[in-house]
Specification:
- 37% of the residues lie in helices and 22% in strands.
- The protein is α/β, with parallel strands linked by helices.
- Helix 16 runs parallel beside helix 17.
- 50% of the residues are buried.
- The chain binds adenosine-5'-diphosphate (ADP) and magnesium ion.
- The site of adenosine-5'-diphosphate (ADP) has 17 residues, from strand 21 and strand 22.
């Protein structure tokens, strides 16, 4: 375990620099927090006071007898460098700088912050902050934060780049909804960051689930690398806010236009096994659920309900999340029917009807039978009105879940709670028994769906780097012949083509390549050809080629011509790549053609990937069904498309100079996949 982790979360002794005797001051709140529950030594530091809150006060950390592991600093920003230097000479190993007035306050603050960071580095003190909320270790009773009291104990550790949000999360623990192990809000993050903390929490034995609220990720590649190691054995749930658009600004290719910062981060994190959520409440709901129940192994859900309508609504919502509510087998239905009235429905949703006097037995026996079955991956009992109000129903559900676990069942149970206020005590007991109780249908489904694991697939090894191609224009775009040659080198079949500089040459090339023919004008700065009227398709004889060539010269001026055999017809796909700052090369695939940006139906991954991961990308497309053909069109061979994407990703990973690659369209014809257009932009000196 990292040394800083022990100093920060399990210090033997703590100094509070800037401790204050006046209630209401931050220096008072922090000291009080520490004294309330922390069993170690706490030393208030103050230049003049002799004693605060009954503890002897020292003028500086170096005057504390014995060693100090952790310093919590709440002095004005300008006084912080001197305090940190004093901490250095006292042998302090970690410091939490709660004070503000640093980078968030302007250029002077930024300079101060850099000094603080430099002093910390030189003295070997690991820093949290500045301008932060602090650190909590619930198991150790350590509250080195400005939060009010300790949250309830549990297995969720929270890393929150928003301190206030982190604090708000606590109040939910008071309602029994969630229990925490460690909480850390890093503020301006001069030193210890999301990657350090993720690694630490991954190894921390009290942390069963890691929840992170991230506004920015400094080193995306390092975060992904660490997450890949943690997620296979410990759930990591991330709310990534901030839809940065910087990736789009300079985008000229379709691929780059679709690879905004938020999309890149989401794709890379998911690929690393992170469970991504889109709001703070769901972050906590999913974290709490995974702390208390196993993760579902698949998407088959059984619903047990005393309200048919709620059951149908849940089934709809679950299907919307890509889960299913499968019809139960005849054998299982027969087993359920033994305990249910004749008119109950046992297909799934299992509808117990309104025979409420029998609810405890019906809920209990149904839960028992379903937990023992191998036909489902998760169970949602609905407790609504009467069933929520009857304490014996709660008793039986709690007892059956416990008994199921004893028998080795790992099927997660999530309650969909639609109970009145008078039933609150029952809900509380369910929570205390470790059974999540989501109010209403949508939240229950969101929580269950959000807790599904994501597979982490092996990363293929990267080959030798490729040499930088020459003759790009000043924006970095390569000419079409160079581009098509590289695309072929990456392993993508390219439609037969020639570059010519005359009508005669075009006709000759057409005879070699075979009709029908497509003619395209080649001009140095021409990137989007269709818009410029530079593409002529469906040319079936020499006369048509001559006429088209003449036409292109008339409208675009003299220049070379790209002569291509006309491929297809078929489904137009896009395969591309971008270099994403912070993360690295990303490969993209989706439905291409002229509606690509309007549909935005692409999937992305950090390159390189294997063909299984590429196949998962295709399954993820909203228009995935388009690949299966229909309307007279051929089906796309998913296997060979996945292999092609994997090949492109391997090539991209070897091309550190690549900025954008756009193969659009790659046409899936009855005879196979073929690229007919591509563009490549490489890094330019500036
Ligand atoms: P741009 O994307 O620069 O506008 P493309 O070369 O992609 O130009 O051509 C536009 C469209 O013309 C393609 O999306 C495709 O539908 C069609 N097309 C272009 N070249 C061919 C070809 N060789 N075979 C079949 N269709 C083609
Ligand atoms: Mg195109």
């Amino acid at each position: 375990m990292d040394d800083w982790g022990a100093a920060l979360f399990e210090p033997q002794s703590v100094a509070v620099v800037g401790a204050s005797a006046s209630p209401g001051k931050v220096g008072h709140v922090v000291l009080r927090n520490l004294l309330a529950t922390y069993p170690g030594d706490v030393h208030p530091i103050h230049p003049t006071e002799r004693e605060i809150l009954g503890r002897p006060c020292r003028p500086s950390v170096s005057e504390v007898p014995g060693s100090v592991d952790l310093a919590v600093i709440i002095v004005p920003a300008t006084a912080t460098p001197a305090v940190l230097e004093d901490c250095g000479s006292a042998g302090v190993r970690a410091a939490i700088v709660i004070s503000g007035g640093f980078a968030e306050a302007g250029p002077d603050g930024r300079a101060l912050q850099e000094r603080v960071a430099a002093i910390g580095r030189a003295a070997g003190i690991r820093l949290v902050g500045p301008n932060c909320f602090g650190v909590i270790n619930v198991h150790a009773g350590l509250n080195a934060s400005i939060g009010i009291g300790l949250p309830e104990v549990g297995g969720v550790s929270l890393f929150s780049q928003s301190g206030a949000y982190g604090m708000a999360a606590f109040s939910r623990s008071k309602d029994g909804e969630i229990g925490f192990a460690k909480v850390i809000a890093p503020g301006n993050t001069v030193d210890l960051n999301e990657v350090d903390v993720l690694r630490y929490l991954g190894e921390d034995r009290h942390t069963r689930v890691i929840a992170m609220l991230l506004e920015s990720i400094r080193d995306g590649a390092a975060f992904v690398e660490t997450a890949r190691q943690v997620t296979p054995y410990k759930p990591v749930i991330v709310l990534k806010t901030g839809r940065g658009e910087s990736g789009r600004r300079a985008a000229a290719s379709h691929t780059a236009a679709l690879a905004g910062d938020a999309a890149v981060a989401a794709a890379a994190l998911r690929q690393a096994g992170v469970r991504l959520v889109t709001d703070g409440l769901t972050l906590l709901d999913v974290a709490a659920a995974l702390d208390r129940q196993p993760a579902p192994r698949g998407g088959r859900v059984a619903v047990v309900t005393n309200s048919g309508g709620t059951g149908v609504e849940l089934a709809d919502l679950l299907e919307g999340e890509g889960m299913t509510v499968p019809r139960l087998s005849a054998g299982l239905q027969a087993r359920l029917r033994e305990h249910l009235p004749a008119h109950a429905s046992t297909e799934n949703p299992v509808d117990l009807t309104v025979d409420w006097e029998r609810f405890p037995a019906m809920y209990g026996e149904t839960v028992r039978a379903l937990l023992d079955s191998d036909e489902i991956d998760a169970l949602i009992p609905v407790l609504l009105q009467r069933s929520a109000l009857i304490p014996e129903v709660t008793d039986r559900v709690i007892a059956e879940v416990a008994a199921g676990r004893e028998r080795g069942s790992t099927i997660p149970v999530h309650i969909c709670w639609v109970g009145p206020q008078e039933a609150e005590a029952n809900r509380r007991r369910l929570l205390e028994a470790g059974i999540p109780c989501s109010p209403w249908t949508a939240r229950a489904v969101r929580t269950l769906a959000g807790s599904r694991p994501r597979p982490v697939r092996p990363v293929p090894t990267v080959g030798e780097p490729l040499t930088l191609p020459g003759d790009a224009n000043e924006d970095g775009w390569l000419p079409p012949d160079e581009t098509l040659r590289l695309v072929a080198e990456a392993g993508v079949p390219v439609v037969p083509w020639r570059i010519v500089d005359s009508q005669v040459g075009a006709v000759q090339a057409a005879r070699d390549l075979g009709f029908p023919i497509v003619l395209k004008a080649v001009r140095p700065d021409l990137v989007h050809k269709t818009e410029a009227g530079a593409v002529r398709v469906g040319l079936t004889d020499a006369a048509a080629i001559r006429a088209a060539a003449r036409d292109l010269v008339r409208s675009l001026g003299p220049g070379a011509l790209l002569v291509q055999h006309q491929a297809g017809p078929g489904v137009e796909l896009v395969v591309g790549a971008v270099f994403a700052p912070g993360f690295g090369p990303m490969v993209m695939a989706g439905l291409g053609g002229i509606w690509i940006e309007a549909l935005g139906d692409v999937a992305m991954r950090l390159a390189p990937i294997g063909s299984d991961e590429a196949a998962a990308m295709l399954d993820e497309l909203r228009g995935s069904a388009v690949l299966d053909g229909g309307r007279g069109g051929p089906a796309v061979d998913r296997r060979s498309l996945a292999c092609l994407i994997a090949d492109v990703s391997a090539w991209v990973a070897r091309a550190p100079w690549l900025r954008e690659l756009d193969i659009n369209p790659l046409i899936a014809t009855g005879g196979g996949l073929v690229a007919v257009d591509a563009r490549i932009r490489i890094a330019t000196p500036d």
